[in-house]
């Protein structure tokens, strides 16, 4: 949502009537206003400001809103939810159109295909947008690269996108229990939808001790930071006695891209609390990044089908380290040749100035008395190459795997 936060305190945007009559009344009310701070004026002033913002400012930014208002100029309708969705995603849509100008190939279209607007090509963006965002990278203080003036054509515009990576969520106090039984949700809402980072119901809590990280879920795509996003935590401790379950964390972290105090390209650590506990969240907002999708393919596991794979796989992005596979011999997983090895995290946000490392140490477990066989041991390093794919082989004494990365 654009930063109407201090107005929305007094008025719900979705209750606004948007047509000729409310606009005329809003302009007249604002023109006659002398002191907006008076309690009796605040709600009326907030309502008038939002009507003017929606019907003039937002209709200039977004062509879809202009067309909607023209079609409903004489109709008494409240603000449609789709209007707010377009406003919330304006920066994201603008950037997708600029990137389409940089690389017009249809297969290089940068908006996720399953986006909530159903937009699948640059023509769809042109039909929606009135004006485009003009974005430079953050300044030298706390950023990877200095700010860049952009005047078009867009060949000098950042090819990456602002992306978010939640590095970890550490439970510090879970109702003073050791261990506690954690359940609840952690969601991230960005311009194009909602992601679940944690989602456990009361019937399947996670046993966790103070100082341990919650087991986060993999995502279907990276979290976008061109527009506002939030991280909402609602975590509880399950009690097995008749007392009510305890709230460990009930808090939302908000991010607005136009806040001049934002920290870019550096990890942000923030405490979040509830009535009976607290946790620490560490995340990073990258100003110019790409999404990496990782797949680990077993090529040869000691010539067995299936191989009994165990060991560790670690991903490093320059700002974070993620253990994406971690099994001992007793927890091995059966994998056939040319099949994927299951990993806990496959989607990563990587700054364009960094690279992605995949560190592999894998073995095949033997049920007889012979030593287990080394499948692959080594590191694959990938430079960011947007809209391209790459693969590297890692071998061991008795096997081979292929690390495949697709950049978006």
From TrEMBL:
GO terms of biological process kind: negative regulation of translation
Gene Ontology MF annotations: rRNA N-glycosylase activity
Gene3D superfamilies: Ricin (A subunit), domain 1
SUPFAM superfamilies with a match to the protein in the record: Ribosome inactivating proteins (RIP) (SSF56371)
InterPro entries the UniProt entry points to: DUF6598 (IPR046533), Ribosome-inact_prot_sf (IPR036041), Ribosome_inactivat_prot (IPR001574), Ribosome_inactivat_prot_sub1 (IPR016138)
Matches recorded under Pfam families: DUF6598, RIP
DUF6598 domain ranges (all copies): 163-405
Domain of life: Eukaryota
Name of the protein in its database record: DUF6598 domain-containing protein
């Amino acid at each position: 949502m654009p930063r109407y936060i201090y107005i929305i305190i007094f008025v719900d945007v979705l209750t606004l009537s948007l047509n000729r009559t409310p606009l005329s009344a809003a302009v007249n009310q604002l023109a006659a206003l002398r002191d907006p701070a008076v309690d009796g004026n605040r709600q009326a002033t907030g309502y008038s400001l939002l009507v003017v913002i929606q019907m003039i400012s937002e209709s200039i930014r977004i062509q879809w809103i202009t067309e909607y208002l023209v079609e409903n100029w004489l109709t008494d309708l409240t603000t449609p939810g789709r209007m707010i969705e377009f406003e919330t995603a304006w920066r994201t849509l603008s950037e997708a159109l600029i990137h389409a100008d940089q690389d017009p190939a249809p297969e290089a279209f940068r908006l996720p295909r399953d986006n909530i607007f159903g937009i699948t090509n640059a023509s769809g963006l042109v039909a929606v947008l009135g004006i485009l965002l003009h974005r430079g990278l953050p300044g030298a203080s706390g950023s990877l690269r200095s700010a860049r003036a952009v005047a078009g054509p867009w060949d000098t515009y950042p090819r990456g996108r602002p992306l978010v990576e939640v590095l970890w969520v550490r439970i510090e106090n879970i109702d003073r229990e050791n261990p506690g039984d954690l359940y609840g949700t952690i969601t991230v809402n960005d311009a194009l939808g909602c992601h679940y980072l944690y989602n456990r119901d009361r019937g399947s809590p996670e046993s966790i001790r103070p100082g341990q990280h919650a087991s986060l879920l993999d995502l279907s795509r990276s979290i976008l930071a061109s527009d506002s996003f939030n991280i909402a935590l609602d975590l509880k401790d399950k009690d097995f006695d008749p007392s009510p379950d305890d709230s460990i964390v009930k808090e939302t972290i908000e991010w607005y891209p136009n806040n001049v105090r934002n920290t870019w390209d550096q990890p942000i650590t923030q405490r979040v609390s509830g009535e009976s506990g607290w946790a620490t969240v560490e995340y990073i907002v990258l100003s110019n990044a790409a999404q990496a999708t990782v797949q680990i393919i077993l090529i040869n596991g000691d010539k067995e089908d299936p191989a009994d794979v165990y060991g560790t796989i670690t991903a490093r992005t320059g700002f974070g380290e993620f253990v994406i596979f971690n099994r001992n011999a007793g927890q091995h997983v059966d994998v056939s040749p040319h099949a994927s090895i299951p990993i806990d995290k496959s989607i990563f946000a990587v700054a364009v100035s960094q690279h992605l490392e995949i560190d592999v140490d894998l073995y095949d477990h033997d049920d007889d008395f012979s030593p287990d066989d080394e499948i692959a041991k080594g590191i694959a390093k990938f430079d960011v190459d947007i809209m391209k794919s790459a693969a590297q082989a890692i071998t061991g004494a008795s096997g081979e795997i292929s690390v495949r990365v697709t950049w978006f």
